[in-house]
Automatic annotation (TrEMBL):
Keywords associated with the record: Signal
Organism phylogeny: Eukaryota, Fungi, Dikarya, Ascomycota, Pezizomycotina
Keyword check for Signal: yes
Keyword check for Signal: yes
InterPro entries with a match to the protein in the record: F-box-like_dom_sf, F-box_dom, LRR_dom_sf
F-box domain mapped to chain residues: 2-33
CDD domains found in the cross-reference section: F-box_SF (cd09917)
One Pfam family linked to the record: F-box
Signal peptide positions on this chain: 1-18
Name of this protein: F-box domain protein
Domain of life: Eukaryota
Amino acid sequence: MSDKISFLPLEVLLSILAYLPFESLLAFGETSRTNFKSHALCLRRLRVGVFEKRVHSMISLLQAGWATPDQLSSSHENDGSRSDYTISVIQPGAYAKQGLDGKPHAKCKLQRKRDIRPQDAQEQTIQAQNKVLARLMNRYGPSLVKLEFMAYDLDVDGAKALGTRCRHALRYLALRFEHPHIRDGPMRPTAWYYPAPGSTAWNLLAGIGNPKDIGITGLETLILERSGITPWQLAMLVGKNPRLRVLKLRTCRGAQPEFLDWLGGVQKDKDDAAIEGQRLAPGAKLEVLWLENCHRLLSHPIDEQKDSSCDEGFEWVRNLSNLQSLSFRECACISSEYVDRANKAIWKIAEVILPYAFVTQNSAMEVDPLLS
């Protein structure tokens, strides 16, 4: 059977393999060297989450929309009908120690808790998660066009694998590090509500520094959740991807005036007043820009006047001429009224998601018909 398949044209073979579940695709790749190459080319879209417990993985899959409750209950998590695969990897944390029966020993567990600090356990978990990512990218990275990765953070190993193995073909990248439902691991529960610590790992992803032949350059969509990327690193990453049309940042360290002014081609004088630039803004081709749960969008508090329409602090939005969707959801640094007035008077963007819903005199009131 393997000999007959190997004689098929590559495009026909890939079309057939696209319908295989992930486990079957892996099994096919182990049958021969030729089939190994074919199975690697077949995997084009990959969603991978690495967690310490299965319940953490299940909740994250549901929240991200990667799976439905029916799919999880029926164990049909991997659907290969469109070469779009979802993989959950359970990587026990530093606190977990299992015996021969597969159950953790309470005495060993308590001993390890005394021996290892939470900070060290967190670093070990992140390293283990990124090793899984690196192994997958070393095998499948060159053929991927879409990748979503769920973990606690990105480290040097994961960033290097992405920057070297996914340089040109990758079009869609989502790095999701925000999991507030996880409250029993090495991460402090409050840590999920703030950006991850800054790291030089992002330099490898953006191709910054001395290393050659590294850095992603073909992205059309970039999604970062709870990332520690700095404004300068984010500007370099966006600048290296001229095809970028969708940028979604949530709880992101890089969403600060330094990056936003650069994105909109705005320069500031000594008094922090905007100076109109002559060049096309780096973000002029963006169609979607979401800045959610980002609280450092302004360099200083703005003076809101109810009767005037202005966009002080957000002059960069004016130069994003192709923008069709702009979101400030859960951004506590600005009011919904201010954003709404600025959009109606100046920006005129088709879809603007306000920081929070606000009630006016003309707002409709929802009533439960069963209680009326």
